Structure formats: structure tokens, C-alpha cells
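Q: Convert this sequence to C-alpha cells.
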Amino acid sequence: MTFSESVWAEAALLRQAIKNLAFNRELAAGTLARETFQFYILQDSIYLEAYSRALSLASAKAPDTDAMLEFSGAAMVAIQVERALHAGFFKDFGIGPDARAATEPSPTCLNYTNFLLATAATGSYAELVAGILPCFWVYWEVGNHIAGIAKRPNPYDAWINTYADQGFGDATRRVIALTDRIAAREDTGTLANMRRAFLRCTQFEWMFWDSAYKQERWPV
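A:
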């Protein structure tokens, strides 16, 4: 069993819990409240800026040119594709540049992005790659799950189609393969750190959708 197969299986109950979240069930049904999705898109925009930085740092740490190109390309695609996706939703929801600039990260968004960037700064390259993987893989799984059950037409069709797209799936499979190549040459201690990073970021994925549904604010 590869590293990715092992941690993916270990996260099975958590992955199911993500698909069962009220946010994702209502998004699939097309009944998710407009203001809830607006909150999510604004927080996701903040998250993706930090995620793109983490991808760029993975590229800088990569030991070979193939991995450098994969992560630098992923960083560019994350910025370009998500900027286009969000721009469409920002227009649809009447969100202007001032509103985006005035939006602060929620506690969950800040925790998740800080964890990724701290891992990039102080963790190993292998640990960082394992932490990057859930955002690809979980979204690919959730996108396909929702695409299979979604009511159509759906006000969130653009979001669904983005994450169920074959191109996104291809990128996900490349990152999975890269993670397994890295894991195959690491020692037991590093593999344990990779596992913790993967599972922690999968937990953060659950928390991110849940916090968006609750429109999480700072309590004080």
C-alpha cells in the first residue's frame, strides 16, 4: 500500500463527514443560502492566496526540476483559475474590491493558512507536500460527489464544475503520485510527520466548510 492509499483510507470517516456537512448537502441541492456562499467565497479567496504561497514554497524546496515545475504550475493555476472563478461569483454577488479588502480571515481560515505557511517555513519538504495534498484531493472527491447528486440547474454550477473537472482531477493525480515518490524514500520519522500533516489539513478542510456555514466570526 502506498503512503497516499494509507492516509486516504485512514481519513475515510473524516472524508465522509465532509461530504455530509450541511454546507455541501445544501450546495448540491441548490438551497445553500446566498449569504453563506458569499461568506465562503470571500474566505476561500483569502485562503487561496496563502495556499498559492505554500505551493510556491514547495516549488522552491523541491529537489528536482519536475517537482519544481509541478508546484510552480499549480501555484499559477490556483491563482488564475480561482481568480476567474471568484471574479464571476464576486460579480454575481455584488462583491466589490473594497469588500474583499475589508474582509478579515475567520479564525478557522487563519489557523489553516498559518499551519500551511508554518509547515513551509519550519517543516520538511515532504511534510509540506503532504499538507498541500488534501486541498487537491478532498476538493476533487467532494466536487465529483456533488456533481453526481446535484440538482441542475444549480446556482452553484460554476463551483461544482470547477472541482469535478477532469483537468483538476489530472492535477490531483499528479500531486498524489509526487507525494508517493517522496514518501517512498523517507524514513519512519518523516513518514509520521507527513501523515500528521495530511490528516491535520484534512481536518482543516472539514472545519473550513463548517465555519463557512456558520459564518464564523471572532468571538472577542
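The chain has one domain: 3-213.
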